[in-house]
Amino acid sequence: MIRRDFIKTNGLVCLSAILGVFPGCSLPYEYSPYDNEVKNKFRDLTAKNLDKIKIVNNNKTFKFAFITDTHTFYDEFNNAVTALNKRDDIDFVIHGGDLTLSALHKEFTWCNEILENLNVPFFTVIGNHDFLSNGERLYQTSFGENNYTFTYKGCKFVMFDNIVWERKNTNPDFDWFNDNLKNDGSADLVIPVSHIPPYADQYDGEDSILNQILENNNIKLSIHGHTHSFYHGKKYGKTDFLVGGDIADNHYQVITIDNGNYSIENIAF
Amino acid sequence: MKKYIIHILVCCCCFNLSALGSNLNEVQTDSIKRKWYLPRDAKIQYAGNIGFLSAGITYHLAKDWYRLSIMYGSTSIHSHVHTLNTVAFKNTFLIKQFHIGDFVVAPTAGLSINFGSTHNTYRNLPNYFPNDYYFQNKIHFAPFVGAMVYHPLPYKIIKGIDFYTEIGTIDNYLLEGIRTEYVKFYDIWNLALGISIHF
Hints:
Chain A: This is Calcineurin-like phosphoesterase domain-containing protein. By secondary structure, chain A is α/β, with parallel strands linked by helices.
């Protein structure tokens, strides 16, 4: 009798547990703030955005927008996307890294949800904050490879992960960077984009290998984030640095490319 | 939010179902003087920011209204990442205990202190970072509220079983829920389910 009661009671109790767990599979369970689970629509975003870039004519004049260091400034980030969506002269948007603050699972989700609202394609580089915790893995699942290039209307963009300290204080792949900055004549302009400028922490300024590679490859314009303050100008030699402020500054930059020349506007929103 | 409510209703229905099937009337009492270091229950939990699955032991303190669980959870089997381990010190307070037939139903609230381990989680930064470059990201405080249903069992070793469900979050998400308009307060919460075997 006791055994029957036991089976009856615990059978129902186990059934309760199973019924509780299975409906839960589609409900908002969080396994870890460092979890690498990313919704399908937020996976491989770099490849998906590259597919979206369509060249409608051979005109080598175009504009793109630059934002960076959005961290957890979600309200300002959302406002920036709204402001960018009001324009019809931007072909794509580049994000200069630090998409998150602590690289946690939901931080990537919230960032992706905001980026998803952009009317134009977007491209990203990884920032030092995105490297925290399990962030590099989450970044790669969401966006793809850390280093990649794409060419648009004769302008080659070299998107480079140049994080040092968060990579256990080891160098990023400078050989890849150097190789991809070389212009075989097919591009009117080569523009590297990486998170940390050579004059900020993690690099030694003029003597840093990052700056040497930029100078040796006669790079006209190098785009960065990280410092949280806007800067545009030359620091050491030939290379012009554009460093975006964080999104809490309520500014984004618009870069106009015209047959290998460029101009920069700092736009308030 | 609607999903949370539906799920809680499903869980409540399940608990009621098991209550109908029960005719155990004798609540077992713990007649053995227990060593202080012996836990009072062992539990296994699904989700709740301490792993896909986590397991641990619990001490019942302060006349049974405060429970300290020491849990280990892993997310590797879910996400194929080998370094997602969490150790949690889970403090659960039984706000009130309702005796309904053979069952004890208790609303709960608490705070879990979670120690995470990944590639780049730090309590103290390596010396190549400047001082205070990052705030520590190894320890997260995870508040939760929930409910527990306990049923005694007439056995010498296993004296009872309880099921619990919790809605919780972690400190970082709570901060964003409060600080920003974009992150809605209902966006930050997630569910956990667990079973405890009482000794």
